[in-house]
Design a protein that fits this description.
heterodimer; A: about 120 residues; mainly alpha; about 50% helix; B: about 220 residues; Cytochrome Bc1 Complex, Chain D, domain 2; 2 domains; two-stranded antiparallel ribbon; 12 helices; about 5% strand
Chain lengths: ~120, ~220
């Protein structure tokens, strides 16, 4: 087998292995985000008790979500609520999620709001 | 007898007469006969690589239980278990039914022996002392989202979220040094977890403050 073919085959195996390890964006949302934002994205996860100091964003509210750009959403996911002058109860996920997972989450949220958001 | 045989014989005698090892061995048997291994694994390192791996688990891993728990709490809890989590393990929809099996007093002692023998060398002893440090409190309650997912004590009141383990009485349950190790090296213990990784976000000193603060929770 030629060296270049071997290299391509090796890269393919590595890529497929990583792809197999990556979870679907919906699974990522349910695992990390739904604890506060709810499984349906309506801001009603089990953490939202009477003590909860803020209302987690309801992603199905199209009018509010349209005001946010994809970059806004990414910034809040990565750096937490204070990145958009919001509550620190929204955690910073920059050391937890991969860039691919964050991109996937943006699409999940856009699916909830059925909107594209600000450019 | 050559020196090698003498050394081997000495080691066999030492192992057989070591109370700690004998206790751990009996405890491991009790762990098995009580079916604990159906929900908890006890051999590290951590196995989970994906969300699906984590969700497939029925209960928390225990391979570092001896570094995580305080012995008196653990033994008492095994015979009279009370829910630590408000929600059923790995569920956001079902409440914890509080149906963890209770062990007999004898089995609880033996299983505690076994679990306390399971340690992680990532946990450095003697670094954290329980203290309601103001800076730890500020980070826990205001600067970081800890209270969003964990119940905690706030002037005799219980507040906080429901998705994470309750931290009410955490000082009785958890080894303060493990709390710090969990914050500084989270992926060693739980490579895939619902709690964010704070390594690289909180400074090492701030993690010590938070660990001391959490270890100061002494309520029931």
């Amino acid at each position: 087998m030629k060296k270049s073919t071997l290299l391509i085959a090796s890269l393919f195996i590595v890529f497929m292995t990583e792809a197999a390890c990556a979870s679907e964006p919906e699974a990522v949302f349910k695992f990390y985000c739904a604890q506060c934002h709810g499984l349906g994205g309506e801001g009603d996860g089990p953490n939202v008790t009477a003590d909860f100091a803020t209302d987690p964003r309801n992603f199905t509210k199209t009018a509010e979500m349209e005001k946010l750009s994809d970059a806004d959403i990414k910034n809040v996911i990565l750096d937490g609520g204070p990145a958009l002058s919001k509550s620190a109860l929204m955690p910073p996920w920059s050391k937890t999620l991969t860039g691919q997972e964050v991109d996937g989450l943006v699409q999940v949220l856009r699916g909830f709001c059925k909107c594209k958001g600000a450019p | 007898m050559n020196k090698f045989l003498l050394l081997a014989a000495t080691l066999v005698v030492a192992i057989q007469t070591s109370p700690a090892l004998a206790d751990a061995s009996g405890g491991e048997a009790a762990f098995g006969t009580n079916g604990c291994g159906d929900c908890h694994y006890t051999q590290g390192p951590a196995r989970e690589k994906t969300i699906e791996d984590q969700l497939a688990k029925k209960g928390p891993e225990l391979w570092y239980a001896g570094s995580k728990f305080n012995r008196p709490w653990l033994e008492a809890w095994l015979s009279t278990p009370k829910p630590i989590r408000l929600m059923k393990y790995n569920s956001l929809e079902e409440k914890n039914p509080g149906d963890h099996p209770a062990l007999s007093a004898g089995d609880a002692t033996q299983v505690a022996d076994f679990l306390m023998s399971l340690t992680s060398d990532v946990v450095v002893a003697g670094k954290i002392k329980a203290k309601a440090h103001p800076k730890g409190k500020l980070i826990f309650k205001k600067k970081m989202p800890c209270s969003g997912c964990h119940q905690y004590e706030d002037r005799k009141n219980v507040r906080g979220g429901a998705s994470g383990p309750s931290l009410v009485g955490a000082g009785k349950r958890l080894n303060p040094d493990w709390i710090l190790a969990y914050l500084t090296e989270p992926t060693v213990f739980k490579p895939v977890k619902m709690m964010p990784v704070f390594k690289g976000i909180l400074s090492p000193k701030d993690m010590e403050f938070v660990s001391s603060y959490v270890a100061s929770f002494k309520g029931e």
